[in-house]
Design brief:
This protein has one domain. The protein is built from 11 helices and 9 strands. The chain has a 6-stranded antiparallel β-barrel. A hairpin with a 5-residue loop joins β1 and β2. α2 runs antiparallel to α6, α4 packs antiparallel against α5 and α6 runs antiparallel to α7. The longest helix is centred in the middle third of the chain and has 35 residues.
């Protein structure tokens, strides 16, 4: 389709008078009333034999401007009528589209990539972090005294086997045999609190995470096999409505009502390539950087200002997946309407409205490979939600310090 430009003309009647009040001149001028420029590329796409339709990069724009209608009267310094313009008033307000501010979308694409890849990863439990935290908790509580928690990764299989044998014995009523399989002993002296700490801070959280991991793995297999593709999407929208004044000397003061909307839409399509690798990724066993970061004391405080944790979380999100295609679309849409609200010159008065400026910019880029977000930048510390999160973090830290 390409570039299209058109202008609809209107008319303006101009009556000029002498200082004595006699009609001196009368004329009708042809003036542009509505003009627009549009660029829309041809988007011919061929359907693949498989039925898959690959996205295509494009860029489109539309600028439309409508001049206001009304009257504009000028007077001699003596107060007598000098001239009257009625109809299309082309000089009543500034029609330069570049004077309208755009909504900033800096960093939004990276946030949408993180959001989409988080959906692809779909982590229900991070077993790597759970194991690391179990070791860290054991050292904190007992100075390294709970050896079994520190070596939990090597003993989980043996423990589960013992539990299974004990369960079979218990079902037959052989309680002593069940105790023997479990290695149960009556805790004495310091062993009692140690056993309690081991249960509360070692085995209970670990078994909970093991349950979450097995649930995730059991759910993942049928989920992976139920289709040949997985699509993840992320969308962002922002509005900015405002009212401002524009002075065009000597044509008066205009009230501009601006309604703007901008956004980013992201879509990524994948095919499964290694279901086992997907499974271990989805339980957090393939990302040592994320595990290390989560175990850093007060890393969540750093994440409040610089979201490193979210960025690390998705670095391995596409493991086990073959990237098929993806796209990211940015758009900016602005509508400005104008009306005259006041005079700014003693000898010119008018009454008009109906001025309108409409802009639309949209572009789409297509990813050749599975995208990764850029390293995160500092968040806006003055947003309402961010301030609330910061105050909550400070409250929690102060409470724990007491």
């Amino acid at each position: 389709m390409g570039l299209t430009s058109d202008t609809v003309t209107g008319s303006c009647q101009i009556l000029s008078y002498t200082q004595g009040g006699a009609l001196e001149d009368s004329q009708t001028q042809s003036r542009p009333y509505n003009s627009y420029t549009s660029f829309k590329p041809d988007r011919v796409r061929t359907l693949k034999p498989s039925g898959w339709l690959y996205p295509k990069a494009y860029s489109t724009s539309l600028v439309s401007f409508t001049y206001p209608l009304g009257t504009l009267s000028s007077f001699y310094t003596t107060g007598e009528l000098k001239q009257v313009q009625s109809g299309v008033l082309t000089q009543a307000w500034n029609n330069d589209p570049e004077t309208m501010d755009h909504i900033s979308l800096d960093g939004v694409e990276d946030r949408m990539i993180i959001k989409a890849l988080t959906k692809l990863k779909d982590t229900k439990v991070n077993l790597g972090v759970a194991l690391g935290e179990a070791r860290s908790t054991a050292k904190t509580l007992q100075g390294g005294g709970i050896d079994r928690i520190q070596q939990v990764a090597n003993t989980v299989g043996r423990r589960l086997s013992q539990v299974a044998r004990a369960g079979r014995a218990a079902k037959k009523g052989r309680w002593k045999e069940a105790e023997r399989h479990l290695g149960a002993k009556r805790p004495r002296g310091l062993a009692a609190p140690r056993t309690w700490l081991e249960l509360q801070y070692g085995w209970s959280p670990l078994l909970s995470d093991i349950y979450g991991a097995t649930t995730a793995l059991s759910e993942e297999a049928p989920h992976i096999m139920e289709g040949f593709t997985k699509t993840v999407k992320a969308n962002y929208r922002e509005r900015d409505d405002r009212i401002s004044l524009q002075q065009l000397y000597p044509h008066g003061v205009s009230e501009l009502t601006r309604k703007a909307e901008a956004g980013v839409s992201l879509r990524l399509d994948y095919e499964p390539s290694n279901t086992f690798l997907q499974a271990v990724t989805n339980v957090g066993l393939t990302n040592p950087l994320e595990v290390a970061w989560e175990l850093v004391p007060f890393s969540f405080v750093v994440d409040w200002a610089l979201p490193i944790g979210n960025w690390l979380h998705v670095l391995d999100a596409d493991l086990g997946w073959r990237f098929r295609s993806g796209s990211c679309t940015h758009f900016q849409k602005t509508l400005v309407t104008a009306r005259r609200v006041a005079d700014n010159y003693a000898f010119i008065r008018g009454d008009w409205e109906g001025g309108k400026l409409s802009k639309l910019n949209m572009d789409r880029k297509v990813y050749a490979d599975s995208p990764l977000p850029s390293f995160p930048s500092l968040k806006n510390p003055f947003s309402v939600g961010h301030l609330a999160n910061g105050l909550s973090l400070l409250t929690a830290i102060w409470a724990s310090a007491k």
